[in-house]
Automatic annotation (TrEMBL):
Name used for this protein in its record: Phospholipid kinase
GO MF: ATP binding; kinase activity; metal ion binding
SMART domains: DAGKc
Keyword Heme: no
Pfam family, one: DAGK_cat
SUPFAM superfamilies xrefs: NAD kinase/diacylglycerol kinase-like
Cofactor: Mg(2+)
Keywords, ordered alphabetically: ATP-binding, Kinase, Lipid biosynthesis, Lipid metabolism, Magnesium, Metal-binding, Nucleotide-binding, Phospholipid biosynthesis, Phospholipid metabolism, Transferase
Single biological process term from Gene Ontology: phospholipid biosynthetic process
Domain of life: Bacteria
DAGKc domain mapped to chain residues: 3-136
Gene behind the chain: ytlR
Cellular-component GO terms for this entry: plasma membrane
Length: 294
């Protein structure tokens, strides 16, 4: 375990939460200075930079190294992908994005003070990490990955110029709801083949399937309340064959996890999951990563 005298590395995404991250960093910096915590800070310049910085820092040492993202789920996701293959990486995040599902579900605190104290108190746990393969691309995740309307919503939210506006009025999460309402009219649910640890499930009219390693997705929706961070399994939630009105109730009840009582919402769990429609995603449990948790 690292000693308090060892440098803590911060990677700040100045664009996360439409600039909110810089305010979060200023607050964190004051706390670090007041407690004389040795630290170094790097500011990301573009997409992919947090991943490269993480690899560079970790390849320069073999000692346990604490690295903290100051950003949202995109930033911590890049850092996790950069930390793969470095067993001395200890990763954490300060909530500074618009969704912040990582800090909500994994670190279990969105407070800057509490998050920093986790790292000072060496409050770390090893959590499961998922690996995925799609269209020849390989990557890693600790939150979730999805196929269907959910993936299209996340993708559009990420690219939407409206995200900045929603963040500006401090309603960052509403971007997902806004795009969902737009998509629900145009989305055509299709058949999906799901193979979980060798068992095949053929699902008709699939609206979305989420493979979750932790409870939250989409900026605070409790998609997978039964997910456990260290149980060595991934959870699968599939919403299919559902009338439109009932689908709307899924998107309301998912806020507290009540959607699992709806007949057309199925849940599974396993270690190796394959999803196939026009594209395909293969996902499996990969190993463990040490992160700060309450
Ligand atoms: N300097 C930069 N300029 C533009 N984009 C950047 C820069 N640095 C990082 N990025 C990209 O910004 C994107 C958004 O960051 P991030 O996901 O952390 O914030 P967010 O979208 O506000 O939060 P959340 O994902 O929790 O909703 C990431 O995909 C990241 O790669």
């Amino acid at each position: 375990m690292p000693h308090l005298k060892e440098t803590v590395y911060f990677i700040v995404n100045p664009m996360a939460g439409s600039g909110e991250s810089l305010k979060v960093w200023k607050k964190a910096e004051k706390i670090l200075q007041s407690k004389a915590v040795p630290h170094e800070v790097f500011f990301t310049r573009e997409k992919g930079h947090a991943l490269r910085l993480t690899m560079e820092i970790l390849s320069g040492t073999k000692q346990d190294t604490r690295m903290i993202a100051v950003g949202g789920d995109g930033t911590i996701n890049e850092m996790i992908n950069g930390a793969i293959g470095f067993p001395h990486a200890i990763i954490g995040s300060l909530a500074a994005g618009s969704g912040n599902d990582y800090v909500r579900g994994i670190q279990k605190t969105e407070s800057v003070e509490e998050a920093l104290s986790l790292f000072q108190d060496n409050a770390f746990s090893a959590i499961d990490i998922g690996q995925f393969e799609t269209n020849g691309k390989m990557g890693y995740f600790v939150n979730s990955l999805g196929m269907g309307i959910d993936a299209e919503i996340s993708d559009e939210a990420e690219r939407s110029p409206l995200k900045k506006w929603f963040n500006f009025v401090r309603a960052g999460k509403l971007i997902y709801l806004f795009i969902f309402i737009k998509k629900i009219v145009t989305y055509k649910p299709g058949c999906m083949e799901l193979i979980i640890d060798g068992d095949r499930h053929l699902l008709k009219k699939v609206w979305f399937i989420v493979i979750a390693n932790q409870s939250y997705f989409g900026g605070g929706m409790k998609i997978s309340p039964m997910s456990k961070l260290d149980d060595g399994r991934l959870n699968v939630i599939a919403v299919h064959d559902i009338p439109l009105l009932k689908l709307l109730t899924v998107f309301i009840t998912v806020l507290w996890g009540g959607h699992l009582n709806i007949k057309n919402v199925d849940s599974f769990s396993g270690k190796m999951i394959k999803m196939k429609n026009e594209g395909s995603v293969k996902s499996s449990l990969m190993g463990k990563l040490l992160v700060g948790t309450k």
